[in-house]
Amino acid sequence: MRFAFLGSPPFAVASFAAAIEAGLEVVGLVTAPPRQAGRGRKQAPNPLVDLAVAKGIPVLRPESARDPEFQTEFQSWQVDLGVVVSYGQILNETMLQLPKLGCVNLHGSLLPRWRGASPIQAAILAGDSETGVSLQKVVLALDAGAVLTEAKVSLCGTEEAPALTEQLAELGARFLVETLQQYDADGALPAGVLQDESLVTSCKKIKKSDGVLDWSESAVAIERRVRAMSGWPCGQTWLPDGDGLRVHSGRIPPQENLLHSAQPGTILCLEEGIAVACGEGSFRIDVLQREGKARMEAKVFLQGARLQVGQSLKKESHE
């Protein structure tokens, strides 16, 4: 079977590498167009492109997968199946009909839970007890196709988004290759299991503002947000002097420290870290990064910071 791979880093890297290593006939890569990033505005690296070039695999990087010129080039590959992994664009009907057997998509959740662009962060934010990866048929509606198969992962409630993303990417890579090896170019895809529309939940692309910590929320919600936004955009709050503060990690203090009558955002304790009053309970910041400074442990930060118990961290810089 001839495969075309459509994906973007970081989630798709392991799957693309595994497909090549397993000897699948990957005849082309479709990935995100070049983008500039950083202070020097240099082209952002794309490990998928690097691997494809090293293996002599053709690469297409269209601004839009709906572009007729791109679709003509894609059609020339004469693929049996399109394999989509975190590609980032909706494929139109014309595109879905170009591969002989259509397209399948590896998605980072147990569909129909968390259709959309940020299923891993959404699972952490919601406190889900399990997540996983699903292989589904691609249809015009987002992540709505029949599920061909899935693999589950139990969550213990301490996972951070970068590590969970890596875990699911590696699981998905093995799972995807094992499944694709069973398909026959002269056959047809399995019918799969239709998704129960009554169980659908959705999530959107993560924005920088999603990292802002609203201290009026419960400590449980704050702790989940910090873990879900770890890596990027990180938990965000503001010091009493107005400087921005990234919150990389933290925890809910022992039970005896949860009860208080302080307003949300009030600093309660500065012993092991920065314990902050929440709408319910409290949250202790353990690893942080002041605006323009390096990441560090909160207890190191406190050696030079002029923070006092009773001061408040802010939800916005202008408050």
Structural description of this entry:
23% of the residues lie in helices and 25% in strands. The protein has 319 residues and is of the alpha/beta class. It has a 7-stranded mixed beta sheet with strand order 5-2-1-6-7-9-10, sandwiched between helices. Strands 12, 13, 14, 15, 16 and 17 form a 6-stranded antiparallel beta sheet that branches. It folds into 2 domains: 2-203, Rossmann fold, CATH 3.40.50.170; 208-301, Formyl transferase, C-terminal domain (Methionyl-tRNA Fmet Formyltransferase, Chain A, domain 2, Roll).
CATH-scheme architecture of the largest domain:
3-Layer(aba) Sandwich
Overall pLDDT, averaged?
95
* Gyration radius over CA: 23 Å
Number of domains: 2
The proportion of strand residues reads 15-25%
CATH class of the largest domain: Alpha Beta
- For the largest beta sheet, what order do the strands appear in spatially? 5-2-1-6-7-9-10
Note the gap between the termini: 59 Å
Figure out the total of helices: 8
Shape by Cα distribution:
elongated
* Biggest sheet character: 7 strands, mixed
**What is the total tally of β strands?**
17
Q: Regions with pLDDT < 50 over 5+ consecutive residues? A: none
* Fraction of residues in H or I helices: 10-25%
